[in-house]
Amino acid sequence: MEKVLFVDDETAILNLIQRTLKDKFDIHVAGSAEEGLSQIRDNGVFPVVVADYQMPSVDGASFLAEISRISPDSVRMMLTGHADFETCVRAVNEGNIFRFLTKPCPTDVIEKFIHEGLRQYRLARMEREYRTLKQWTKSLGGLIEAFIRLIASKDPYTAGHQIRVSQLSAAIARSLDFPGEAVEHITMAAMIHDVGKIYVPAEFLNKPGLLSPSEMNIVKMHPEIGHDILQPINFSFPIHKIILQHHERLDGSGYPLGLKESDLLTESKIIAVADMLEATSHHRPYRPAKGLDQAIDELRDERGVKHDRRIADAAISLLSGGKFQFEET
Ligand SMILES: [Fe+2]
Ligand SMILES: [Fe+2]
Which of 4, 210, 221, 287 has its CB 3.0 to 4.6 Å from that of 48, i.e. a possible disulfide? Predict the structure, then answer.
């Protein structure tokens, strides 16, 4: 039950409220503004606070104004037998009052107003959380841009590869009707999926010809390194896990953990398909480009074995149907 605080110097009213509403809300009562403030200190935020206007020492308007300062999320209502214009204006200006209740107020009306107040409280809290999340996502977007610039300064090939992989990953997710937020997460993860390569010596990444097994083992560490770089950052989605799994394959033949289909995140499966198509169709330091047709043929062979069938089909349809083209960066 949600907490509601009633502040009134008339004990009979507080008793009536407690008796009639105690099964519907977690009712707390206080006989004065000072007592009301100590209830807030002891019990934390009250979603709804109702105060009588006429109280000795501190009146309801001043009390609710103080509540708006110390507990801005609480929805404030005023109970008054003196609903004159000046009282209302002062209360609204100082305490941003949600509703006025005129004494004597039937308890069913009070109950209805409390429900409205609780709805308002939840709405305001959701709005604030959404704003915070937006702000946070914006700063994480800046962090991702910093990673992209860092990679570009060391390894321009990987920077271009990541952009193309993110564009194809987003197109696949959209064609599979993923919601906008999920598309955004996949795009962000794909933009930095090879961030772990900043720890791989540049001569390995740019070596013309095949890598030795020991060099290859170092290159293959990049998903785990990317995971370790991103894990401590508090993203709203598991970007570190998506990146960890981008070289895993459905049949367990991938790396670093040899995970199988049921363990893999859908986001990782999408990036894996886009990554494979981009890498196969483009030039790599150790081999010339195989071209898009060969990349699509290889994916057809691997669909349902190494790569998710539905995701592979979506990618093939986008590329062979001319609905998506890799941009050269
Ligand atoms: Fe990779
Ligand atoms: Fe990659």
Answer: 4
- Buried b / exposed e over 4-39, threshold 16 CB at 10 Å, is bbbbbbeeebbeebeeebeeebebbbbbbbeebbeb
**Contact by Cβ (8 Å): 305, 250:** yes
Partners of 287 in beta bridges:
284
Cα(197) to ligand 2 centroid in Å equals: 9
Structure-token match 């998903």, residue found: 223
Burial of residue 123 (CB within 10 Å: 0-12, 13-18, 19+) is: exposed
What pLDDT, in 10s, does the model give residues 20-50? 999 999 999 999 999 999 998 888 889 999 9
Strand pairing partners for 49?
Answer: 5, 76
pTM: 0.64
CA of 137 to the centre of ligand 1 (A): 24
* Cα gap 166→171, rounded to integer Å: 9
For ligand 1, the distance from its centroid to the CA atom of residue 220, given in whole angstroms, is 8
Domains of the chain are 3-126 (3.40.50.2300), 155-320 (1.10.3210.10)
Distance 136 CA to ligand 2 centre (A): 26
How much distance in Å is there from the Cα of 127 to the middle of ligand 1? 38
On the question of pLDDT at 287 being above 90, the answer is no
